[in-house]
Amino acid sequence: MIAWTIAEARLALKELEGRATLVPLGAALCLGVLVAWLELRAASGFALERSLHGPIFGLLFPLGCFVLTRKVLGPDLDRALQSARFGANRRVLLAGRVCGLLVAVTAFAWSLCAVALMATGFPWGPLEVARLVGVATAAAFAHGAMMVLGVSLLRFGAGLSLFLDWLLGNGTGVLALFWPRAHVRNLLGGEGPLGFGAGGSLALLMAVATSCLAVAALRTKP
Amino acid sequence: MNAHATSSVDHASPLLAFERVLLGFNTFDWKFGIGLHSLLGDETSGTRDVFALAHGITVPRRGSVLLNGYSPHGRPELRRRIASVGPEPLPAMASVARLVGRISELHGWAAEPVIEQLDAWGRRALLEVPVGELDLAARTTVQLALALHHRSPLLLLLWDPFASGLDPFMLRAALEKSAAERPVLVFLRAPLTPPLPGSSIPFGDNQVAATRAPSRPSRASLWIACNGVEGVAHYFLQQRGVCGAEVLAGEPGLVRLRVDDPLYKDELCRNVLAFVSANALGLRGLRFEEDA
Question: ipTM of the predicted structure?
Fold first, then answer.
């Protein structure tokens, strides 16, 4: 079964090759550089923090995540798991697809962080950079999982989950508790939902993401 | 999807049934029993949807698709009884040999017959090629070897098998042999015109044709390769809109025709021979028969 999972993950990554994916992601990275540079010009203090809080993890990253999900999973999950015709269990194939997607989303999150760091002249020390890498990885896992659940629930569900994350994750109330956007903002030093600390937000983010993947797996027929 | 079905098969015990399935804006009731069936359509006619539904990859929005009374969607053990050549990329394994091995392992049969088949077709070298690097012809060939050596398939679904570049007559004979025991559905991309009254399209017993685009001469070669040499004559009869003409069933390589108007005989002969030559098709004879 491991061989099928790996093959599906590789197939998912192969489907990301091509201009349809690279152009929007490249544009997002360029916009990330521009935003960080503009923040630096506006006020040199906390330019990196401001660009990460706002445009990078608030807008560019979720949009990039959506593009990647659309390419890897398509509008609905059944259609994406074509290798099921050889008799492989769909859940095994889904695991492969999700692994491929999470690798791609994580690489994109790291790339956004790297361009923001470069554009602002590396204002952080190694410890803070390592922490940023950790937050980017958690954000990638959570956003990827949320979109996988969206696609498994309904056709074009990735777009709906992106919209709801923007709408509900923007606040700090109870409704924001279940959306990655609110917790990622908290982990980057912003205000968390219901006054949660960074540790609590990270734990909740992981719990929500894992639940999303579990529900998506349960909804997928073998 | 606009489609029409004509049938000459006994559907007393259908194996694959589309029951009130909604495709596009139309509802379809199709039953495929033992025999060779072809489904013709271009990229936009919904043939991929039919393939995915028949294989249990997707479920219809309305209605049901049943193989021997059960939906293959959600039943991997039933999906393993369907042998297929599909339009999508294959699982990206390190080599074709590895892919063949993994599929054999999953199904519980030996990989050797598949390897021997590729060897017999002179395509053994494909075994070492990474799956992601296969072109359309190679991908189709590998899947055909797997499909034809499936141990006990209930159903064969073949997406454009002639794209393999293998000898169409050999392939057709293999499919007809397999169709003696189970339904074989062949999905063909073809230029389409409504069949002439009283004519029979010579590929398969039961034809479900998507009637969308008018025929385009640029795609004639493919259609002719799929249908054998009698397809050439049929194609030209359709192109010219000849009435009172018919391609009669014959053995491979021998075309039997009935053309009422003698004016068309010469033109037909000329066109058929030119196409047969251009497409390197085997033709043993072209026989015109008197109207009974």
Answer: 0.72
